[in-house]
Amino acid sequence: MLVGAFVMLGWMSARAGGVGPLFDQPSRLGWGGGFWKLFWPSLMGMIGFWSTLSLNIPDFTRYGRSQRAQTWGQALGLPTTMTLFAFLSVLVTSGSQAVYGQPVWDPVQLAAKTDNAAGLLYALVTVLVATLSVNIAANLVSPAFDFSNVAPRKVSFRTGALITAVLAVLILPWKLYSDPRGYIFTWLGLVGGLLGTVAGILVADYWLVRRTRLDLADLYRAGGRYWYTGGWNWRAVVAFLAGGVLAVGGASLRPLTDGRPVPALAPLADYGWAVGLGTSLVLYLGLTRLTRGPARPPRTGRP
Fold first, then answer.
1. Using CA of residue 60, residue 64, residue 66, residue 69, what is the dihedral sign?
2. Pair (212, 128) in one structural domain
3. For 239-283, what is each residue's pLDDT tens digit?
4. Residue 84: partners with Cβ closer than 8 Å, 6 or more residues away
5. Which of 65, 90, 99, 246 has a CA that sits 20 to 30 A from residue 221's CA?
């Protein structure tokens, strides 16, 4: 992805007559009320973009040789590459403003403007590889495992991946991606708000309730401490529903449909991830401390 971004940067610089015009495009936003109106939902959208991988990162870090190895791998591999790629994307989009008179943020639309067949082919292959690699890591592995865990004897990881792929087509992603506002403020806002509630429950349970101590055997034992009521932790369900409603109840659903599910909650929609995280964390922590029975020390034996 980075190689492709550098190639597009070089091409755009050549079309613009150098890198100067890429840095010379004036800001249209400023620091007034208009800036903050876009900043917070954009920030929540960016967090929502990473919220999927942040929740299922154990699917990958479990293969690390040590805690130190996976920590350094994430610290060096994720923030640095994302920052560099975002910087290159801003420069390329700024260059498109200088060359074509309007910003072109979609790399496919930008590649279509070249008159070089080889360059167009390279750009499309780069976009294809980037789409496959990102989706497999961030959007396929986790739901495939989830579907498999629902019925492990009937649904394999491969079948779970196929189910995920079919559902991915049914949600019409090209319609969401066709409008940058719909993609950032609607799709990422909804995903971020709902996954923020999940993150809040996980943080509350693992860090605040259990103090990072888990009984690994009971994680896989029916009737163990994590079996709760018939396999359901009702506190987590209540916290998720409450946090989810507050986080995304007032969100705009364009371009899918007009209007908002709960218009009164519209002021909270711009802060969806933070609202979901905070609400579910506080509610789950409160319900757990009010209703849980006496604590049991983790077992040390095997299941």
1. negative
2. no
3. 999 999 999 998 877 766 677 888 889 899 989 999 999 999 999
4. 2
5. 65
Q: 236: domain range?
A: 179-290
**Any domain includes 300:** no
- Rounded distance, CA 163 to CA 25, Å? 45
Please state the pTM of the whole predicted model.
0.83
Which residue's structure tokens are 């049914």? 170
Whether residue 155 sits in one domain with residue 186: no
Task: Scan for tokens 């095997």, then name that residue.
Answer: 302
- Rounded to an integer, what is the distance from CA 37 to the centroid of its chain? 21
Burial class, 118, CB count within 10 angstroms (exposed 0-12 / middle 13-18 / buried 19+): exposed
- The whole-angstrom separation of Cα 298 and Cα 225 is 9
Q: Are residues 8 and 55 in the same domain?
A: yes
> Are the C-beta atoms of residues 243 and 279 closer than 8 Å to each other?
yes
Q: Which of 170, 197, 223 is the last residue of a domain?
A: 170
